[in-house]
Every structure is written in structure tokens, then in C-alpha cells.
Amino acid sequence: MQTRAIILAAGKGTRMKSKKAKVLHELCGMPMIQHVINNVKEAGFDEVHAIIGPDSDEVGDYLGDSVKKTVQEERLGTAHAVNQLSDLLADEEGDTLVICGDTPLISSHTIQNLLDFHHERKSLATILSAEADVPTGYGRIVRNYDGSVKRIVEEKDATSEIRELHEISTGTFIFDNQTLFKALDKVTDDNAQNEYYLPDAVNILFREHKLIDAYETMEFEETLGINDRVALSQAESLLREQINIRHMQNGVTLIDPKNTYIDAGVEIGMDTIIYPGAVLGGSTIIGENVTITSSSHITDSEIEDDAVIKQSVITGSKVGRGTNVGPFAQLRPGSKLGEEVKIGNFVEVKKSELENEAKVSHLSYIGDAHIGARANIGCGAITVNYDGENKHKTEVGRDSFIGCNSNLIAPVKIGERSFIAAGSTVTDEVPEDSLAIARNRQTTKEGYYKNQK
């Protein structure tokens, strides 16, 4: 049977106090609408639609071709939003999930359970409900003796007895598709806001004595809708806890999970140890038996097995097996380190490749360079890659030694097994097996101080 999901993402989100569309605000490194899309797709839905607003070009651009997009030209309520798909879907068979784009914590597991329950009960509509400790502000679920739903009662219309109920409607529904669109045609805007609301479609089905059910999730926190920055921070905290628990269950050691920040798209191998204060973001992949110490920040990078990262910043780079980085180093985008490489304290590497066992131990800048295997770059050495207009490349051959405080003026090539004397400024190619000294001879004037007096 065909299943489809409709994600409501046309709201302005004025309470976010932001120029950015609400559904694009990030949660653990990913826009909240992307979490919803991922969860729906993981639950196995065949087709995904998103309803976006008329001024939501940024949302449309972000979504691209990942889902089918429909614009709600006028924001006239949730029922009106879903009904924008009437011409396309009204006659289709199957089931349709309607879910809000600001509910990123509703897991694929919960969505799948909701769909399975809907099929088992053969309902025409199934509400995702939850037990709220404090149900204030939510519509209450009133059930019949057989467990089906008798009605949803909004708090303002509830008697004192109904207000004692703690099962609430979360605003997520699954409908028989044709039944949904028939009900939407009967929804009116006869309310204070003059808008068309999706729960009114459910109430129409109640009045028509159609079978309506509610699937109660045991995870009330999953159903949190994000309307402001406070709710965003609460959701971030909940999701980070889930992410960290999943990694620990998969064999990763987090010394202090509450102070370890791992984005949703990060992969980590077993026996890796991560210390508090570490931030792992984007599409980062961490191998097995890696150590990442406090204050390290790694984004969109790959760290292979047995590497050690100490208090360093790594962005868009690759670190090979057994390589040591830091403390206080920075790998900028395009950096690629081989196996058993050493990048020491206060070293910056940008768009450069270092082959196996190369060493840059301290206080150096390596930019737009290729450093051969086992080459040793001394303290304070710099590849001078920028002439004020263009970037140029430096090549250092295998087993070469670059003395302390040397400047390699690119474009320049240092041959294999060559030595650059400390303090040299090298502008010409150095052949293999050579020693280059590029500095003025020392002049010493004895008695200089006394003569000045």
C-alpha cells in the first residue's frame, strides 16, 4: 500500500526572532526539517512532500530535490496547507502522514509504530498521542470503551473532569488518504483566527462516526514542537543525550557525556575515547581506538584508527592512522595527513599533503605544500605560499630536513634527502642530496658596546 508523508513547513516562526526560516535552525548540526525528513524516510514512507511558505526561498533551496515541494501562497492554517496537494493526491489510495517540520525529535521508530498501529486497527485516522505530566495547553484525548478515540477536546473547551486527563494530541496524524482530502473539503474557517485547521478535519470524521484511533508513544519528550530558542535548546539537549548514548552503546568511551558535543551526522568507531569539551560536527568520521582530548573541534573530517588529537581544530581534512595532532594545532580545509605523521603544538596546515611519518613538530605554517615521507620540518619553518595575488606550491622531498626558522618561498622544490640550514630563505630549487644555506654571513664587531659608550 502506498504511503506518503506531508511535512508542514510554511510557518513564519516569528517567536524564533530570526531572519532565518524556523525549520532551518540547526539541531545537533542539522536543520530541524532535515531531521524530520530523515526520520520519515527511515520509517519507510514511499513519498515525501513538504509544504513551504511563499517567502521561503531559502527553505526551497535547501530542500532541493530531496522531497517534493509545494508552496502555500497564503498562510491560512494547517488544513489549508495540506489541501494544497488536493489536485495531486486526493484520488490516491493508501495512507498519508501529516507531521510538522518543527518536530525533529519524533523518531523513525515512533513513526513506524504509528503506521503499524494504524494498519492493525484499520482506522481511517490515527493520532499520535502521548502522556504529559503537565498537559496544560494541549488538546486531550477522550477514548471510547474499546480504546478508539471518542473526541479531542481543546483545553479551553474542556470540563474539569476532562482536564484531569493527561493523554494529549501531539499534532501528528496518519489518515486514509482519500478520507483525509474528503474531510479537508468540509473544513471551514469559522474561528477567531479565520484559518483552516487540520484537527477540524479529525473532528469532522468524529461527527461522521468514522473509526479514529490514537497511538500513544511512551516518549513524550519526542513530541516537543520547537517554536522559540528556549525549545530549540531543550531539543538540542535531548537529542545530544540520545546521540551520546547511542555512541557509548556502540563501544565509544565518553569521559563526560554531558559536556561532549557530537552532531547527528558523526560516525565513531569502537574503543575511541573522547574527553569533555570536544566538539565533533558535520559529516565527520572517526575511526577505532582514536583519542580526542578536551577542547578539540573537528568538523567534516576523517580521522583514521589509532590517531591522537590534542586540543586542536580540524576542518575538512583527513588524518591518517596513528597520526598525532596537537596540542593547539589547526588543520584547515584540504589538509591530508598520512600515517604516523606528527603535527605538533601551534602548527597550522592548510591545503597540504604530508606523507607517512613526516614531522612538523612546532610553530610552523605549512600551506599549499606537499611534504614527502619522513621529512622533518624544523621549528618556525614556513612555506611562503602567497605573493600578494596568487597562491603557489612548495614541494619537499622524502627524508629531507628543513632547519628551524627557514622560509621556503613558493613556488619552490626541495629534492629528496636534502638539508636546508636553519635561518635560510630559499627561493631556488634544491636538488636531491644537497645542503642549501641561504643567509648572510655573520658579522661580529668586538667591543661594540664600549665603543658606543
Automatic annotation (TrEMBL):
Keyword Ligase: no
EC number, as in UniProt: 2.7.7.23, 2.3.1.157
Pathway(s): Nucleotide-sugar biosynthesis; UDP-N-acetyl-alpha-D-glucosamine biosynthesis; N-acetyl-alpha-D-glucosamine 1-phosphate from alpha-D-glucosamine 6-phosphate (route II): step 2/2; Bacterial outer membrane biogenesis; LPS lipid A biosynthesis; Nucleotide-sugar biosynthesis; UDP-N-acetyl-alpha-D-glucosamine biosynthesis; UDP-N-acetyl-alpha-D-glucosamine from N-acetyl-alpha-D-glucosamine 1-phosphate: step 1/1
Cross-referenced Pfam families: Hexapep, NTP_transferase
Stretches for region N-acetyltransferase: 251-453
Binding locations of acetyl-CoA: 385-386, 422, 439
Subcellular location: Cytoplasm
Residues in the signal sequence: none
Keyword Cytoplasm: yes
Domain Nucleotidyl transferase positions: 5-211
Residues annotated for Mg(2+) binding in this entry: 102, 227
Region feature Linker, mapped onto this chain: 230-250
GO molecular function: glucosamine-1-phosphate N-acetyltransferase activity; magnesium ion binding; UDP-N-acetylglucosamine diphosphorylase activity
Gene Ontology terms describing biological process: cell morphogenesis; cell wall organization; lipid A biosynthetic process; peptidoglycan biosynthetic process; regulation of cell shape; UDP-N-acetylglucosamine biosynthetic process
Active site: 362
Co-factor(s): Mg(2+)
Cited InterPro entries: Bifunctional_GlmU, GlmU-like, GlmU_C_LbH, Hexapep, Hexapep_transf_CS, NTP_transferase_dom, Nucleotide-diphossugar_trans, Trimer_LpxA-like_sf
Domain of life where this protein originates: Bacteria
Region listing for Pyrophosphorylase, in residue ranges: 1-229
Catalysed reactions, as listed in the record: alpha-D-glucosamine 1-phosphate + acetyl-CoA = N-acetyl-alpha-D-glucosamine 1-phosphate + CoA + H(+); N-acetyl-alpha-D-glucosamine 1-phosphate + UTP + H(+) = UDP-N-acetyl-alpha-D-glucosamine + diphosphate
NCBIfam families per UniProt: glmU, PRK14354.1
Subunit structure: Homotrimer.
Function: Catalyzes the last two sequential reactions in the de novo biosynthetic pathway for UDP-N-acetylglucosamine (UDP-GlcNAc). The C-terminal domain catalyzes the transfer of acetyl group from acetyl coenzyme A to glucosamine-1-phosphate (GlcN-1-P) to produce N-acetylglucosamine-1-phosphate (GlcNAc-1-P), which is converted into UDP-GlcNAc by the transfer of uridine 5-monophosphate (from uridine 5-triphosphate), a reaction catalyzed by the N-terminal domain.
Full protein name: Bifunctional protein GlmU
Species name: Lacicoccus qingdaonensis
Lineage: Bacteria, Bacillati, Bacillota, Bacilli, Bacillales
Gene symbol of the encoding locus: glmU
